[in-house]
Amino acid sequence: MKVDFYKTFAFLFVLLIPCLGTAQRYMEEVFDEVTVTEDVKYGTNISIVQIILGLSSEPGPEDLKMDVYEPAGDDLTERPVVIFAHRGDFLPPVINQTPYGSKRDSAVVEICKDMAKRGFVAISMAYRIGWNPFGNDKEIKEGVLQASYRLSQDMHNVVRYLRYHAAEEGNTFKIDVDKIAIGGFDSAGWGAASLAHLKTVEQVQNLVKFVDLSTVPPTPFVIEEVHGNPQGTNEAFLNIPNYPSYSSEVNAIINIEGGLGDLSWIEEGDVPMIAFQRRSGFAGAGIRDVSLTAGGSIIIPTGAFPDTLVFRSQELGNQDPFIEAGLTDELTMNAVESTGGLEGLLLYDGFKVDLTVQCDPTPGADADTYGNNTYPWNWYDETVFGAAWDGIENQTIPSPIYICAFNANQGNPNDAAISKMFIDTMTNYIAPRLIAVMNLSTATVDNDLKPSLAFKVFPNPVSDVLTFSANEAVTAIQIVDMSGRVIYQATDLELSKRQIEVKGFPKGMLVAKVQFDRGIVTEKILIH
């Protein structure tokens, strides 16, 4: 499908025009800077990547780490979380023949920064990778399924860690443990979908396509005593349970060009999905076989892609939180129309680059022709990747030739500015849906509202009863100390006057945040 560059650019440009008026937290970027805490350990589990890299003949423990992105200067003490996992086909960069496969991939970093600037806490998680790409068809099929299974366990693990950390380690990242979403790019999208829909190991074992029929008796690809349960909460040969007493429930999942092992895993009551898929691959309710490469061997027969998943999820009522939000922005309306009425699925067109390049200078070698951009949000440092590529032992393809051919094959001009525009469009689609399913308030602090609200706080200083009054309904009140610790909180008030007993409050200066439909006002309060 050929896409006109100008039309696509113009479409994206329209989506990125800021709304007039006061910026809304979560809906738009309201913070200029982001702080990043790197390599936070969220668990330890058994990995086989050492075997793939030739460093060991046995599986071994691996520390699981994440990078945490927070809005700089934010004074909220409980913030929603969105977690992203990188692409990479469950193999390390270069070994997977791409520059991608790290929690520092440009696309993951950019989407985390974007979401943090909107007011979310965003997390880029590393996870266990590894399978044998040189095995036979059965070994590859088994290895990829098990790698996806481990990723899903690690996703459960990182969610449990956040709740553990909030409850027992001081909630350093100031998260709201009841408002968490998780997603992944490409292969990692399969893990996110499994987190939401795969509840028991029997769901895998009962499918013939995930059983080795050449053995007597037949051997399932996933065995609980070996791999653990889907949530990773029991002891197994290849699984260490981390924080098993904590919940790994999420509000929504985000599936960016991923899929799911089988459509039957989706059940009524599962969390809603936000998904992205190439327009050229859209087929509505159908199911298709999955291969690692076009024309390659089938690794997941009758797998389900984002269009199929959202269709089934909507059929079961799981997408209702998005539908009931009644979103009418241009991006939503275009998405619903192009998918035939699906809510939660955004189709995209990659740029068609009309370019033919002679990557291989060998006389008689075929030229490479750019195709449609497969993953237009990706870009990378060609110098860094080239050095790693050339460092492979017995490498026979020089990095300039490989990079040239790789870019052409991906249809990717490797242009950071273009890729960032796609990321912005994705977050513009994700944000209002998370606002809906997490019931987030988009109000921001605006003390200029006080006169029109006739807002009053009295007496101040106070030692017994504090009164808030206004000519509009107060919807929520939060009182914090100067370190940000919550002293008092009340929601769903809908009252124009509220009295609070403060005798048990710590003495000294506190800050009250009072929410109205039009915004939030703050007031310093001195407790005697």
Give an account of the 3D structure:
The protein has 528 residues and is α/β, with parallel strands linked by helices. Helices cover 29% and strands 26% of the residues. The strands form five sheets. The protein has an eight-stranded mixed beta sheet with strand order 1-2-4-3-5-8-9-12, with helices on both faces. Helix 3 crosses helix 13 (416-438). The longest helix is centred in the N-terminal third of the chain and has 32 residues, at 137-168.
List strands and helices in order, with pairings.
Layout: H1 5-16, E1 34-47, H2 49-52, E2 60-71, E3 79-85, H3 106-117, E4 121-125, H4 137-168, E5 175-185, H5 187-197, H6 202-205, E6 211-212, E7 219-220, H7 224-227, E8 252-256, E9 273-278, E10 288-291, E11 298-303, H8 306-315, H9 320-324, H10 330-338, E12 345-348, E13 356-357, E14 368-369, H11 382-390, H12 399-410, H13 416-438, H14 450-453, E15 456-458, E16 465-481, E17 486-501, E18 508-516, E19 519-527
Parallel strand pairs: 3-4, 3-5, 5-8, 8-9, 9-12
Antiparallel strand pairs: 1-2, 2-4, 6-7, 10-11, 13-14, 15-16, 16-17, 16-18, 18-19
Helix pairs in contact: 1-13, 3-13, 4-5
- Straight-line N-to-C gap: 70 Å
Estimated share of beta-strand residues: 25-35%
Overall, the morphology is globular
Q: Which structural class matches the secondary elements?
A: alpha/beta
Oligomer: single chain
Biggest beta-sheet profile? 8 strands, mixed
Strands, count:
19
The average pLDDT is 89
Give, in spatial order, the strands making up the sheet with the most strands.
1-2-4-3-5-8-9-12
Radius of gyration: 25 Å
Q: Poorly predicted ranges (pLDDT <50, ≥5 residues)?
A: 1-21
Q: How much helical structure, as a percent, in the residues?
A: 25-40%
Count of DSSP H/I helices: 14
